[in-house]
């Protein structure tokens, strides 16, 4: 089965990982620092904390923002559950704002309507790799004293109005899962513009350990001492994983280029097909296309999903609206809240998109889809 997404690993990646395995540091060593520095360079020069996954990065980011019971996080339902669940786990209440019907991106007008004096975070998702309209979102967040968070699990390497992803929101999170734009196997990262948030994220992801003697509350111990002020977790990414990340980062421009070529090839080959809406691009953006989400019209999405997979083409549905998950339904969220997101979900189908996809693979996907829809 042709997968809908997969990693691209070459001998340089294998060698980079092997070199770290032969060295002294398997974790919490110089390769973690080097990877965080390289990510920072890509993402506007802000502090970066690597984490064990994109889910961990979101949880650490919300925890670093010091959310408390009663605080609200406004976010999109058209995302992987972790964008919202990280906020819920950190103690905040999630408020869903509807999406633009064409792009599936959070709609600034819906965000504006959802803001209250309790809003602490506006969390946008660069769905499919398309950066959101941060110049519209940031002033809305600023107006109520909230921060913007970009879940950039799909969009690392892209840009918006000439600014790189990582520099667009107050806080940004990445995922390095194998299907993403680059991989560390499992992995993720938090980028933040606020050094205090960066410190809290770093401490949270490292069990809450404080190592700075100037901040010690227990002052009668020896040079071995470290202490915990606020409870944390172990979300540390290893040197082995970061070696893979550093090696992959060198190829990110190549990955991005091929993803762009596949996007263009699908667009050209499918433009005239009735019953299909192609991914929309809005504004001055340079996406790295993580997904190729078409919308299958006329109620045929489930049929097309099944027939594509039967023909050996791995398609995927991204995503169930977050509040349809039983965990959120049990909290009282009801279907119908965000009609654009629900309609988008009912139509959306991600076609295979990854850098090693060949022209023949693209032709197979196109021919199979044409065969079903015509
Ligand atoms: C939009 C979005 N946010 C967060 C995540 C979580 O990332 P991870 O799978 O690395 O935990 C994913 C990945 O599945 C994602 O697609």
Number of domains: 2
Please tell me what the overall shape is: globular
Outline the low-pLDDT stretches: none
Give the structural class: alpha/beta
Topology of this protein?
Blueprint: H1 11-21, H2 30-42, E1 48-51, H3 54-64, E2 72-75, H4 82-89, E3 93-96, H5 108-114, E4 119-125, H6 134-143, E5 147-151, E6 159-160, E7 163-164, E8 171-175, E9 188-192, H7 195-205, E10 209-210, E11 227-228, H8 239-270, E12 276-277, E13 285-286, E14 292-296, H9 301-310, H10 326-329, H11 339-347, E15 348-351, H12 359-373
Parallel strand pairs: 2-3, 2-4, 4-5, 5-8
Antiparallel strand pairs: 1-9, 6-7, 6-13, 8-9, 10-11, 12-14, 14-15
Pyridoxal-5'-phosphate binds next to α3 and α4.
Could you name the key traits of this structure?
374 residues, Aspartate Aminotransferase, domain 1, alpha/beta, binds pyridoxal-5'-phosphate, Aspartate Aminotransferase, domain 2, three-stranded antiparallel β-sheet, 38% helix
């Amino acid at each position: 089965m042709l997968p809908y997404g997969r990693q691209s690993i070459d001998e340089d990646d294998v060698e980079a990982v092997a070199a770290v395995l032969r060295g002294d540091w398997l974790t919490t060593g110089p390769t973690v620092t080097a990877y965080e520095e390289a990510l920072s360079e890509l993402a506007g020069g802000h502090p970066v904390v690597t984490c064990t996954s994109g889910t961990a990065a979101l949880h650490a980011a919300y925890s670093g923002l010091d959310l408390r019971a009663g605080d609200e996080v406004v976010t999109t339902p058209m995302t992987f559950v972790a964008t919202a669940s990280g906020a819920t786990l950190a103690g905040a209440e999630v408020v869903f704002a509807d999406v633009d019907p064409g792009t599936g991106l959070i709609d600034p007008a819906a965000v504006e309507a959802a803001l209250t004096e309790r809003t602490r975070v506006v969390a946008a998702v660069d769905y499919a790799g398309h950066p959101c309209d941060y110049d519209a979102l940031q002033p809305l967040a600023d107006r109520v004293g909230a921060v913007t968070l970009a879940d950039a699990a799909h969009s690392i390497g892209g840009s918006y109005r000439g600014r790189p992803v990582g520099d667009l929101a107050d806080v940004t999170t990445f995922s390095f899962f194998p299907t993403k734009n680059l991989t560390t196997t499992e992995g993720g990262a938090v980028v933040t513009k606020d050094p205090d948030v960066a410190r809290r994220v770093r401490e949270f992801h490292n069990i809450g350990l404080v190592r700075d003697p100037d901040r010690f509350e227990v002052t009668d111990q020896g040079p071995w001492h470290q202490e915990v002020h606020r409870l944390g977790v172990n979300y540390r990414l290893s040197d082995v994983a970061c070696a893979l990340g550093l090696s992959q980062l060198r190829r990110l421009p190549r990955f991005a280029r091929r993803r762009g070529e596949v996007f263009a090839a699908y667009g050209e080959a499918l433009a005239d097909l009735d019953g299909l809406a192609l991914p929309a691009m809005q504004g001055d953006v340079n996406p790295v296309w993580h997904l190729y989400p078409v919308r299958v019209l006329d109620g045929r999405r489930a049929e097309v999903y099944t027939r594509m997979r039967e023909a050996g083409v791995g398609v995927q549905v991204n995503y169930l609206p977050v509040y349809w998950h039983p965990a959120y339904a049990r909290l009282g969220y009801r279907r119908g809240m965000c009609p654009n997101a629900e309609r988008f979900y009912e139509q959306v189908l991600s076609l295979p998109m990854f850098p090693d996809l060949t022209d023949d693979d693209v032709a197979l996907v196109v021919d199979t889809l044409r065969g079903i829809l015509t």
